Amino acid sequence: PLLHSDKENDLSRQVWRKKAEIYKNLDIHVVTPSQWLGDCTRQSSLLGRFPMMVIPNCLDVNVFRPLDETEISPRWLDLIRIKSKKTLILFGAVNARNDKVKGFSHLMSALSVLESNGHCNNTELVVFGATKSDLEMDLHIPIHYLGYVDNTQDLVSLYNLANVVVVPSLSENLSCTIMESMSCGTPVVAFNIGGNGDMIEHQKSGYLARERDDAGLAEGIMWCLENNTENQLGKTAREKVLENYTFERVCLQYKKL
């Protein structure tokens, strides 16, 4: 039924039987990047009987790192000037309007909550991955549309310029955006879904809101902006990445396996 089929022997059933026949003769050890996907694997009728362990994805922490202002990409000079006076919220918006899993409507709702409570007077929103025509928003908060960012140094600079990154997705395995932001020393606000809780330590390196809780998402944004004294949240986030997601850490786990 989840595949919109009412046939007993539909294509999905046929494929499942073929896989079951093949898998029973194989010596498989399953690796998943997140605890959430590991739990899904344990419940799988095909893979649940095999040994399984969680080994996360890794990241080049020498590229995604905290930057001095002199290292910020000159492309973002206007944002550098703005940050000297205001706080910046960063949102990655590739295909956000069409893909409901991206959680764009929840971000809009959260920002509307912040506006109605008067919390956005000193805040501006930075959107990468979309233009104004792609993703026009009915908000009073100033919005900077940067379009698609295809240069790594430009992206690292954006993470560093942001005071907080919001990832309102409704489904995530082990989010690259969250890991990259944390590696750059910028706290992240997200829903407590998928592998987000593997990376974000609630109110230590960012904020985890209940799933689809737009008011909680808004609260998380404000909490991070108001409680990141001397960027302690960002420093803790960076430490989390260094302890768990470097090439060396991850490769050693695969070598051990």
Explain this structure to me?
- The protein has 257 residues and is of the alpha/beta class.
- The protein has ten helices and eight strands.
- The protein has helices at residues 11-23, 35-42, 77-83, 104-116, 152-161, 176-183, 196-199, 214-227, 232-244, 247-256, and strands at residues 30-32, 52-54, 87-92, 123-128, 143-145, 164-167, 188-191, 206-209.
- The strands form two sheets. The protein has a six-stranded parallel β-sheet with strand order 5-4-3-6-7-8, sandwiched between helices. Strands 1-2 form a two-stranded parallel sheet.
- Strand 6, helix 6 (176-183) and strand 7 (188-191) form a beta-alpha-beta unit.
- Helix 4 crosses helix 8 (214-227).
- It is globular.
- It starts with 10 loop residues before the first helix and ends with a helix.
Sequence stretches where pLDDT stays below 50 over 5 or more residues:
none
**Overall form:** globular
Helix content: 25-40%
Specify Rg, calculated over alpha carbons.
20 Å
Average residue pLDDT: 95
Counting DSSP E segments of at least 2 residues, the number of strands comes to 8
- Through-space gap between termini: 38 Å
